[in-house]
Design goal:
Elements: H1 3-9, E1 15-19, H2 26-36, E2 42-46, H3 47-64, E3 70-76, H4 80-93, E4 97-101, H5 106-120, E5 123-127, H6 143-153, E6 157-159, H7 165-175, E7 180-184, H8 195-198, E8 203-206, H9 208-211, H10 216-233
Parallel strand pairs: 1-2, 1-8, 2-3, 3-4, 4-5, 5-6, 6-7, 7-8
The structure holds 6-hydroxyuridine-5'-phosphate.
Length: about 240
């Protein structure tokens, strides 16, 4: 069972903070983790951030604060060998989970990645649909196929868009409760905190609404408070 589930069950807020913008200096990143790790469930680091600061710097922060959860969001989409090599690298840095695209398919792709994740004890999350509009051009047209890939793969969880709650509902209905659903698009992309959880997600991925704030603690507390409020007043999944 994923450590992430333990963190949620221990009462951490249902938020994963997304860190992408290199304007967040390394010391700001460190401060963010230090000050919010007990309130939120984890942190997701994106490609621009990882490329800008490098694995050694990021490893030093992860090593300093182990009592939380880190996802390397490299949106893997390659042959199994290459995705597996990448995952070995980020595992050495201390990341707990990786994200891969669902459209890659199982054979010679996600199947091999999953074996390596299992060997390493790294959690795997599969993108099933995306939060931007272009997702309706391709991803959403084949979502049932992507979801059948997820069922064949049995990853830790999936990514589904907060910007289109009907997609989250569909993913939850299709997959049942077996998988964690992580949902981006809350805050800067327009979805209201709590709305994705209400539609069936387990966690909301929140980037700029927290990372662009002068006060990380206040911003994350506000997101968590609004989530609870939303869930209190709505009829949810
Ligand atoms: P923000 O809250 O600043 O919009 O950040 C959203 C985060 O979620 C980013 O890290 C982005 O890469 C990620 N994301 C997304 O926005 N839409 C998706 O469909 C999948 C994502 O991983």
């Amino acid at each position: 069972l994923s450590r992430l589930l333990d963190l949620i069950r221990s009462g951490r807020g249902r938020v994963i903070v997304a860190i992408d913008d290199p304007l967040i200096t390394l010391s700001k990143f460190k401060e963010l983790v230090m000050k919010t790790k007990d309130a939120v469930s984890g942190f997701k680091l994106g490609l621009p951030y990882i490329l800008s600061y490098g694995l050694d710097n990021i490893k030093s922060v992860i090593t300093d604060f182990r009592d939380t959860y880190y996802i390397a969001d490299l949106k893997l989409a390659d042959i199994d060998v290459v995705m597996s090599l990448t995952t070995k690298v980020v595992c050495r840095v201390g990341f707990n989970g990786v994200i891969a695209h669902g459209f890659v398919g199982l054979k010679g792709g996600l199947d091999g990645l999953k074996s390596v994740c299992d060997e390493l004890g790294v959690d795997l999350y599969i993108v099933t649909s995306m939060s931007h509009l272009g997702s309706t051009e391709i991803y959403d047209l084949v979502i049932d196929k992507v979801l059948s890939v997820v069922e064949g793969l049995r990853p830790t969880g999936v990514i589904a868009p907060a910007t289109r709650p009907e997609v989250i509902r569909r993913v939850r209905n299709y997959l049942g409760r077996t998988y964690l659903i992580l949902s981006p698009g809350v805050g800067a992309q327009g979805a209201t905190p709590g709305s994705a959880i209400c539609a069936g997600a387990d966690l909301e991925i929140v980037g700029r609404a927290i990372t662009s704030s002068q006060d990380f603690v206040k911003a994350s507390e506000e997101v968590i408070k609004s989530q609870l409020k939303y869930l209190e007043v709505s009829r949810c999944y």
